[in-house]
Every structure is written in structure tokens, then in C-alpha cells.
């Protein structure tokens, strides 16, 4: 097999691959900010141009319009569909990734400009999107480049689906998947997604489960305009006071969700499932270093992982309309929107979650006796996903991990959400594998997001070797 030449090429072209990542990180493709939408589109154009230069057949799909909360609308960024190779004697692998990123500002506490890729002394490639998910999607392009420039036969037909709205609920993508299930995606044999992380910092893993996510906007309004707290304080119902009171009834400081009925459908932990938590390469100190302090709720690694993977959680994210600048503004905000989300697990249903949250919020608000108004809506929801990891897709990936890292991978689940995973599994009826590139301390969604140079370079080898291992499988 041609793998040694491929490995050599990857090692020798590290600088080119990092330059490709540098160009991508410099495009601030933040899907949640309307003002950044042209940058998200620019990022799609960048991928299209790179893919075309590599010889892939590329098309972009318009997936419609996004209705914004202020009533305006915005074009959704295109989904980039690309194909490399079309040999009926080979397997066809679909890879998915996202080219949008979470917001990032220097003022959030970044040590460097989040939209400039900086390599520090320890070989960390810092920049928004480095690990989530620009490094991994460029990994696939780098695999193509290596094979093309070496004149190596590509082991599979590769189909690529890259979207620009994953961090904002993947709007428009499910419809496209359903539409193309029997057309563009018809000949797909297996799906691979590289968009999550190793458990810790040293051992690679294959991932077979994700939590779902239901994101909520809780709006409380009353006064016709923002008010002077000296003139009106104590004389009007203040939306922020109501909001804090209601939001404080959602979750306890020990992480327990307080919405009645929310745990009713959570699948009980069986002995068999409990055993899957034995011997995983994860230690409390890795959690402490990823968190940046020792504020863990649970004492044991097992409890930490179970609360990350197989129990639901509720997080409070922020308040739109609240005063948050430095200084002492004495305003009474007229309208505030509290944002929170619930990470869901088998066998919770998204419709039940929304109904329970609505009922709870309305009942808690009624207790306040406030003349303000309340409105609660679920802005996006995705279901949890768990696969059985004994399919040849996982076997090929496990062999690839052993070839690149000389170790058997851990089999993990993930606390984050990639709702499209389940959409691909259901619409195509094919096995889906999550094959992470980055480490558990990469700081995705946080400040100083990074991808270690070695994870990027070894990750490229891993993705390429996985495709070669697929070609070897007789199934
Ligand atoms: C795991 C993946 N890389 C990721 O970060 N997913 C996001 C998806 C999401 C859902 N709503 C907003 N973003 C996540 O888990 O938060
Ligand atoms: Zn993300
Ligand atoms: Zn991601």
C-alpha cells in the first residue's frame, strides 16, 4: 500500500497545510452574526476555489432564507458539495464538515487576534475555527492534494458536504439531505464526520454518540422604552428582575435541571453501558486543564463522562438587551432576551423538551404577578445520536488509528451536538462515524481555540489512512 509515501508527503508539506489553514482562519465566517454573513459566503468561495484547484467537481447549493428575530431576512450561506473520484469499483465515502465558526473577539480574553492563525512556542495553532472545524475540513483537502501531487490512486470516491450554518442550527441542511438522499448521496456507502475532539490530550478516539441540543430564547418586555432607574426604579415591573427570577428556576448550582418532567424519558444506565466507561484514557487533571480551574461538580472521571455524554444538562448563555459594558450605566432595559440550552440524551424527545420548558416558564412567570409579558421559543433543536460501533466503517477507522498512532483508539461519546449526524444516518440509511482530529483541551467555542500542529499533521495522515483502510475492507 502507498501509505509511507503519503506520510512522507504530509510531513514534508506541513508549512503548506498550515498556510491553507491560515487563509481559512483569516476569514471570520461567524454564522450567528448577520454582519458576518458575507464572510461566511467568502469562506464557501475559498473552499470552492481550493477544491476546484485540486480537481474536484464542485457545486454550491442555495438552501434558502433565514428569518431573523427582528423580522428581517438573510440568505443562508451555500452548502458546498464536492466529489473527488467516480470509480464504480471503489467504495464511496461521504465526509461532512462545517466552515462557519463561533463568534470571537479579542476583548473576550483572547491572547492573540482570533482571526489570525498564530503558532506558539509549543506548536499550538491558535485561531477561531482551527479545531472547530476548519482544520478537520482542510484535512480532507490536504489528503486529496497529497494523493494528486504524488500521482497516487485515490482509494475511494470521496463526496464532501460542507455547510456554513452548523454553529447556528444547520438551517436548510436537513431539507437538502432529504432532497439529495437518492440523488447526490445515492451511492454513499458510509459517512465520516471529523468535528469533535479526543477525550483528553494524548489518546485518539472514535466517537459513536452525541447529545442533542434544544436552544431557547426567553423574552420579557414591558416598558415602552429603556428607563432611568432613578426616576422609574421601584415604580415599574422591571423585565430584567423578572428574567433573573425565572432563569434562576431552570437549573441548580449542582447542575440538576429543575424543569419538572425533564428526566422522565432519560434512558436508565445499564450495567453493560456502565462498563463502556471502564479504562477510558481520561483523568481529572485533564478536565481541570481543559476547564482552566478545578470547578468540577463530580468527583470521579466516570461521573464526569456520564454527565457529559448520557445525562442532560441545561446551560444559561446570556442576556440580549442587558447592559454589559464596563462602567456604571443606570438603565432599566425595556426588553431582555435570556438565552439557554438543554443538551438532550436518549430517549428524550425534542417536542417534549419544548413543551416542558414552556409550561415551566409560564408557570414560574405567573407566580411573579408581573405586568410584563413573557414569550418563550425554541430557536433550534437537534436530536441526540448513538450508533453501534461495530460496523466496517469503525473497523477501518480503528485500523487507521493504530497505523498512525500505534495505539487502539478509545470508543467515546461526545457531549456536544452535530444534529446532521442523525439526519445523514436516517436519510441515507448508512453508518456514520465521528473521527476527531483535535484534543480535548482545544478550547472549541472558547477563547484561545487551538489545534496542535501534531494533531493537524497526524490528523491528515489519519484521514488519508482511514480512506485506504476502507478500500481494503471486503464488505
Ligand atoms: C461538536 C461540534 N463541533 C459543535 O461544536 N457543535 C455545536 C452545534 C451547535 C448547536 N447549536 C449551536 N451550535 C455545539 O455542540 O454547540
Ligand atoms: Zn462548534
Ligand atoms: Zn463543530
From TrEMBL:
<feature type="binding site" description="in other chain">
    <location>
        <position position="417"/>
    </location>
    <ligand>
        <name>substrate</name>
    </ligand>
</feature>
<feature type="domain" description="Peptidase M20 dimerisation">
    <location>
        <begin position="208"/>
        <end position="366"/>
    </location>
</feature>
<feature type="binding site">
    <location>
        <position position="167"/>
    </location>
    <ligand>
        <name>Mn(2+) 1</name>
    </ligand>
</feature>
<feature type="binding site">
    <location>
        <position position="195"/>
    </location>
    <ligand>
        <name>Mn(2+) 2</name>
    </ligand>
</feature>
<feature type="active site" description="Proton acceptor">
    <location>
        <position position="166"/>
    </location>
</feature>
<comment type="similarity">
    <text>Belongs to the peptidase M20A family.</text>
</comment>
<feature type="binding site">
    <location>
        <position position="132"/>
    </location>
    <ligand>
        <name>Mn(2+) 1</name>
    </ligand>
</feature>
<dbReference type="GO" id="GO:0046872">
    <property type="term" value="F:metal ion binding"/>
</dbReference>
<dbReference type="InterPro" id="IPR002933">
    <property type="entry name" value="Peptidase_M20"/>
</dbReference>
<keyword id="KW-0645">Protease</keyword>
<feature type="binding site" description="in other chain">
    <location>
        <position position="195"/>
    </location>
    <ligand>
        <name>substrate</name>
    </ligand>
</feature>
<feature type="binding site">
    <location>
        <position position="330"/>
    </location>
    <ligand>
        <name>substrate</name>
    </ligand>
</feature>
<feature type="active site">
    <location>
        <position position="100"/>
    </location>
</feature>
<protein>
    <recommendedName>
        <fullName>Peptidase M20 dimerisation domain-containing protein</fullName>
    </recommendedName>
</protein>
<keyword id="KW-0479">Metal-binding</keyword>
<feature type="binding site">
    <location>
        <position position="132"/>
    </location>
    <ligand>
        <name>Mn(2+) 2</name>
    </ligand>
</feature>
<keyword id="KW-0464">Manganese</keyword>
<dbReference type="GO" id="GO:0070573">
    <property type="term" value="F:metallodipeptidase activity"/>
</dbReference>
<feature type="binding site">
    <location>
        <position position="445"/>
    </location>
    <ligand>
        <name>Mn(2+) 1</name>
    </ligand>
</feature>
<dbReference type="Pfam" id="PF01546">
    <property type="entry name" value="Peptidase_M20"/>
</dbReference>
<dbReference type="Pfam" id="PF07687">
    <property type="entry name" value="M20_dimer"/>
</dbReference>
<feature type="binding site">
    <location>
        <position position="98"/>
    </location>
    <ligand>
        <name>Mn(2+) 2</name>
    </ligand>
</feature>
<feature type="binding site" description="in other chain">
    <location>
        <position position="343"/>
    </location>
    <ligand>
        <name>substrate</name>
    </ligand>
</feature>
<dbReference type="InterPro" id="IPR051458">
    <property type="entry name" value="Cyt/Met_Dipeptidase"/>
</dbReference>
<dbReference type="InterPro" id="IPR011650">
    <property type="entry name" value="Peptidase_M20_dimer"/>
</dbReference>
<keyword id="KW-0482">Metalloprotease</keyword>
<feature type="binding site" description="in other chain">
    <location>
        <position position="445"/>
    </location>
    <ligand>
        <name>substrate</name>
    </ligand>
</feature>
<keyword id="KW-0378">Hydrolase</keyword>
<feature type="binding site">
    <location>
        <position position="228"/>
    </location>
    <ligand>
        <name>substrate</name>
    </ligand>
</feature>
<dbReference type="GO" id="GO:0006508">
    <property type="term" value="P:proteolysis"/>
</dbReference>
<dbReference type="InterPro" id="IPR017153">
    <property type="entry name" value="CNDP/DUG1"/>
</dbReference>
<feature type="site" description="Important for catalytic activity">
    <location>
        <position position="228"/>
    </location>
</feature>
<dbReference type="InterPro" id="IPR001261">
    <property type="entry name" value="ArgE/DapE_CS"/>
</dbReference>
Amino acid at each position: 500500500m502507498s501509505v509511507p509515501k503519503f506520510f512522507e508527503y504530509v510531513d514534508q508539506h506541513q508549512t503548506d497545510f498550515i498556510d491553507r489553514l491560515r487563509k481559512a482562519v483569516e476569514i471570520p465566517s461567524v454564522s450567528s452574526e448577520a454582519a458576518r454573513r458575507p464572510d461566511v459566503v467568502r469562506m464557501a468561495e475559498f473552499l470552492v476555489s481550493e477544491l476546484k484547484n485540486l480537481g474536484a467537481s464542485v457545486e454550491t447549493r442555495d438552501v434558502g432564507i433565514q428569518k431573523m428575530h427582528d423580522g428581517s431576512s438573510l440568505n443562508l450561506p451555500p452548502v458546498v458539495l464536492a466529489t473527488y473520484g467516480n470509480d464504480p469499483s471503489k467504495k464511496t465515502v461521504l465526509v461532512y464538515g462545517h466552515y462557519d465558526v463561533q463568534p470571537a473577539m479579542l476583548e473576550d480574553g483572547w491572547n492573540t487576534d482570533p482571526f489570525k492563525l498564530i503558532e506558539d512556542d509549543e506548536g499550538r495553532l491558535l485561531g477561531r475555527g482551527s479545531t472547530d472545524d476548519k482544520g478537520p475540513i482542510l484535512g480532507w483537502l490536504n489528503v486529496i492534494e497529497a494523493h494528486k501531487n504524488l500521482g497516487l490512486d485515490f482509494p475511494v470516491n470521496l463526496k464532501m458536504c460542507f455547510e456554513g450554518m452548523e454553529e447556528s442550527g444547520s438551517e436548510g441542511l436537513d431539507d437538502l439531505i432529504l432532497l439529495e438522499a437518492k440523488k447526490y448521496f445515492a451511492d454513499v456507502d458510509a459517512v465520516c464526520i471529523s468535528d469533535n475532539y479526543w477525550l483528553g490530550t494524548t489518546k485518539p478516539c472514535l466517537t459513536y454518540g452525541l447529545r442533542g441540543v434544544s436552544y431557547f430564547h426567553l423574552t420579557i418586555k414591558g416598558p415602552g422604552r429603556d428607563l432611568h432607574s432613578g426616576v422609574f426604579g421601584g415604580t415599574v415591573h422591571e423585565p430584567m428582575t423578572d428574567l433573573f427570577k425565572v432563569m434562576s428556576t431552570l437549573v441548580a448550582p449542582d447542575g440538576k435541571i429543575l424543569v419538572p418532567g425533564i428526566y422522565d424519558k432519560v434512558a436508565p444506565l445499564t450495567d453493560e453501558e456502565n462498563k463502556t466507561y471502564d479504562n477510558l484514557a481520561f483523568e481529572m487533571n485533564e478536565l481541570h486543564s481543559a476547564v482552566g480551574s478545578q470547578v468540577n461538580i463530580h468527583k470521579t472521571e466516570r461521573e464526569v463522562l456520564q454527565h457529559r455524554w448520557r445525562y442532560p444538562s441545561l446551560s444559561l448563555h446570556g442576556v440580549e438587551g442587558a447592559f454589559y459594558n464596563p462602567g456604571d450605566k443606570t438603565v432599566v432595559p425595556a426588553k431582555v432576551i435570556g438565552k439557554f440550552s438543554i443538551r438532550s440524551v436518549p430517549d428524550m424527545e425534542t417536542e417534549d423538551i419544548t413543551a416542558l420548558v414552556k409550561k415551566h416558564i409560564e408557570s414560574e412567570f405567573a407566580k411573579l404577578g408581573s405586568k410584563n409579558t413573557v414569550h418563550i421559543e425554541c430557536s433550534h433543536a437537534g436530536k441526540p445520536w448513538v450508533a453501534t460501533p461495530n460496523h466496517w466503517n469503525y473497523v477501518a477507522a480503528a485500523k487507521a488509528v493504530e497505523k498512525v498512532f500505534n495505539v487502539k483508539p478509545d470508543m467515546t461519546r461526545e457531549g456536544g451536538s452535530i444534529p446532521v449526524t442523525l439526519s445523514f444516518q436516517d436519510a441515507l440509511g448508512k453508518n456514520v462515524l465521528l473521527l476527531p482530529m483535535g484534543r480535548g483541551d482545544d478550547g472549541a467555542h472558547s477563547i484561545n481555540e487551538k489545534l496542535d500542529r501534531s494533531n493537524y499533521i497526524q490528523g491528515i495522515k489519519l484521514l488519508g489512512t482511514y480512506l485506504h483502510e476502507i478500500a481494503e475492507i471486503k464488505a
